[in-house]
Amino acid sequence: MAPKTRAENRAEQTRAILDRARAQLAEVGPAALSVRQIARDVGMVSSAVYRYFPSRDELLTALIVEAYDELGAAVEAADAHVKRRTDLDKRFLAWANAIRTWALANPHEYALLYGSPVPGYVAPDDTVPAASRITGALLSLVAESELAQHVLGAPTNRLSTKERTALGPVRDAIPSPVEDERMLRWLMAWACVFGHLSLELFGHMHRGVLDYDAHFAQVTGQLAADLGLTG
Amino acid sequence: MAPKTRAENRAEQTRAILDRARAQLAEVGPAALSVRQIARDVGMVSSAVYRYFPSRDELLTALIVEAYDELGAAVEAADAHVKRRTDLDKRFLAWANAIRTWALANPHEYALLYGSPVPGYVAPDDTVPAASRITGALLSLVAESELAQHVLGAPTNRLSTKERTALGPVRDAIPSPVEDERMLRWLMAWACVFGHLSLELFGHMHRGVLDYDAHFAQVTGQLAADLGLTG
DNA sequence: ACATTTCGAGAGCAGTGCTCTTGTTTTCGT
DNA sequence: ACGAAAACAAGAGCACTGCTCTCGAAATGT
Question: Which residue intervals are the DNA-binding region (chains A, B) (predicted)?
């Protein structure tokens, strides 16, 4: 029995609360997450929890950050498992499949991250850097595809001038310059992947598509082809 | 003062509750919608509301159905405003723009329909037919594009056999047969549009894209081109 | 005209997020 | 090493929620 110092104890309690909160999140979803229930489960009184998280919403954002980190780590691990780094199609598929695998394993967490924000629109808070890991992994692929001089697999319209300026920030997020049309195709792939996932996980594909795995594979394969990553 | 009959009164009260609920939904979102507050607003006691809607969830599903109907009507109206019925690209853009316009005007309703389902996964209930109006409008365009023998604007991979059988139900929802690759491209467009909308409305495009209007126009225009609707 | 159903109102229950107060314990400055 | 200061757990309490039950009053069907 080490005579726990105050900081140690605080760290332990914080973890215990977060762990129990994640478990409850997986069971009942974000809407039904109860601070009092969490307090009971970890063996303290509800008001004590507020010494660690000032409100339920802050607890939720902590869970969001944790979930983003977990998903980001999964994505990066999947990418690292592709041996030939120049196989950008494999890396793109690894990116998409990692997200889908994680989402299927943690549907409530996915809903928390990419579904409707529960307490109104969350202002730009400390969840942004964690969330950037996922898109950042994709942007790396964009840069590498540009450097590899891949030619797009589908004819792509020239960007309107408004659109060109509209994409300024995302372009700035990539160190090297990227062709207009390529940038657009990658953004479309981004929307298509998350659109598929949200439609699938939120029950909008129930009638219409039988085998989600097959459909996702077909879609992502097509996206890779459109991006010129294959061959 | 007509001596309101019982059925009349019931219809009026039901409407009053629904109207007030929609207003409150637009103000505070689905999570914070309160039966008691609605009751106060319409001038009755909370328990009286339960004579009209057996639970809060049933009230929410009624709101979902209403929202689907409103969105469906908006989509159909937008489609009807395209004079040359063979201009499938214009009709596709009308479809996409109608959804986005409605979503921007009613973000909380959009979140209710296409965001994370609030009370766990809603089982297949009476919301399905209302929801089918939106996808149904898209499927009509698929059928017409096939009949018009449009040739896809982007090279498309052959479907895997698993994928071909996976798409059985959606194919059955269209009276006339549809080419495999065309079906896939339309499903991708479907996911891409809703993916864009969810990413935009739920705040994931905040950094990255400045002008959502321009980007959406560019994306949907590209989708129409990929589907072979232009020219 | 009467029995049945429908309805509104109120009380009440169990639960929630959150605040405040009250002792107790750990930490820190001197 | 000791006393001031900060951190902490516990409990009571407030305002609120969804929902149930009972009780009278009103409209309905026969």
Answer: 34-53
Distance CA A46, CA A58 (A): 15
Q: How far apart are CA A93 and CA A82, in angstroms?
A: 10
CA distance A143 to A160: 22
Question: Nearest residue to nucleotide C6 when comparing alpha carbons to its C1'?
Answer: B6
**Average pLDDT of span B13-42:** 96
Q: Which residue matches tokens 């598509």? A: A209
Whole-model pTM: value is: 0.95
pLDDT for B84: 97
Q: Number of A:B CB contacts under 8 A?
A: 188
Which of A127, A163, A227 to substitute to test the interface with B, most B CBs within 10 Å?
A: A163
B35 touches strand D (CB under 7 A): yes
DSSP string, B53-94: -SSHHHHHHHHHHHHHHHHHHHHHHHHHT-SSTT-HHHHHHH
Q: Give the closest residue to A167 by CA, choosing from A184, A144, A146.
A: A184
